[in-house]
Specification:
single chain, 677 residues, mainly alpha, Glutathione S-transferase Yfyf (Class Pi), Chain A, domain 2, Neurolysin, domain 3, 28 helices, 55% helix
Amino acid sequence: MTNPLVDIQIPIPFDSFDAEHVEPAFEILLAEAQARLDAIAGFPGPRTFANTLLSLDEATERVDYAMTLVRHLEGVATSKEMRAAHNAVEPKVSEFHARIPLNEGLWNALQEYAATQEAKALTGVRKRYLDKTLDYFRRHGAGLDAAGKQRLAEIDVELAQLTTKFSEHVLDSTNAFEELIADESRLAGLPESAIAAAAAGARAKGRSGWRFTLQAPSYLALMTYLDDGAVRERFYRANQTRAAAAPFDNHALAPRILELRKEKAKLLGFSDFADLVLVDRMAKTGARAFEFLETLRARTLAPFAAENRQLLAFRREIEGPSAPDPAAWDIAYYAEKQRKARYHFDEEDLRPYFPLEQVVMGMFETAGRLYGVAVREAPGVPTWHPEVKYYEIREDGRLMGAFYADWHPRETKRGGAWMDAFVTGEPAAPGRHHIGVICGNLTPPVDGKPALLTHREVETIFHEFGHLLHHCLSNVEVRGLSGTSVAWDFVELPSQIMENWCWERESLDLFARHWRTGAPIPEDLYQKMRKARNYRAANMQMRQLSFGFADLKLHREFDPERDGDVIAYARRILEEFSPAPLPPDHAMILSFTHLFGSPVGYGAGYYSYKWAEVLDADAFSLFRENGVFHRETGLRFRRHILEKGDSVDAGELFRSFRGRDPELNALLERQGLAGGQ
């Protein structure tokens, strides 16, 4: 029987393979891929773009496809068997990829081709792919001696193992914590939706009462609304100390990951890991990324301090002049009360207008109006869970791409929200379309009601769908330059810009309708929502900046011999941006999978969220000028951004859409911080 992981199959046979297929598949795939690479290196000539560059681009496709599927299933439907299989093949695949730029025969082949007249005459996408491939090989050790190459490969394998273990510890420690509340009076303050979800969570475990966990819908509701401060404190401490103690302890892993990244950068001739990974991104250097964050911090400090003074004053208004400063676990609670008092707006009032399926349909309609595509569910395709749905994206009947959507939390699924690419299609090849996935951990349906989302969850859906469109609308002939394979500080532009359509009346009316009556959001509620949009915007910005600063300082400056414990070091940085003192046991850095959940990931790149937010605010200002559903502007964004992948420099792509370089003020004005000094 053929191993279902060995060949790229469309649709993907998620119902046909399991953990026992993984290791045998990679024995075949890695051997075949290595044979392809050896054939390129040993090709007698003459060298051409097709037999050298395109062959190299295609050589690892089946390995990448299979590894993406295995990594995905380990993240959304983990089991002891799948985790063991994943962990068995991950180091082998990492070593295989790490050794590609260290292959002297391949490096010689690339240099031979680069010296040909054909190579010298290349233009456009093909020239960019040659230049980027040569640069990639240089930055990944092609010029090292034999000992250096060996050490680099060892580092990459160890990084893959450590970062995988880091993510496992975060998932396991998240699932290990729960609290069952038996007395209904202790639920005071919680909205009906959170109480119903907690009751359903308890029933699912065969228990009575109300079950709360560290999964996002449960945790955020509790921290925002629950009157019982002692319970909020317990959950806050549990969340901030995930993966900080045995048996799921990341304390030793984080500094070792930083040490290996630093060694890798030095080995390759860079001053630090930030300079290594940013050299082909828009920021170019760690210093420039740091300067960007400093500029935003300077513009945010004054309104940040004012917001926090106002929150303390508000607490004292309702509790008396002796009320203490809010603790870290009090901030969200009192902020929500202040928002209600100031704007007469309760986020929960919006939930009935955001049933999941309706939001999804409205999101598809938004994409159709902007980009001229149609998105429809295609039932009957195998998936990994009954809740998962499969959709196709078409234009004038032509299949452009397809994707899976997996929206709700499970104990076998990692936290957060993300998009991934399973198959990168070939624009010129019928039947080889793009395939991706979008995942979330959103409020599930409860008590016969549909899944009723918060507005922030609606933004999350639109965000991940923006990434998905970037992949599925890509029209680049070279796989390695297609879709979301762009500069990391550019990749969030297509996702973050989509969030803007969650705020405009014209677009909200497509999907924001009461789940019982079908009525749109009342105008007074909409206006309250708009006015409350920038409530504590400076605090939200400082939170993101804190992660960016901690990330860059860890990867540019941290020295354990000088700076001591990595938890304490990170806590000192984060506290500079916090509205309340952080408790001594605060260890959030040990569950920060953005930084430590993969060999590179957002390591030295967390600033990218803010960088791309500047791009998105400035880009969306053109839609605001022309109309939020202005088709020509939408098609221009599709043509110059979504379709281009990394086939053109990111800065040039932005200029081609916007007509100029990005400007910071659009973001500050949107946040209401333009006057911050």
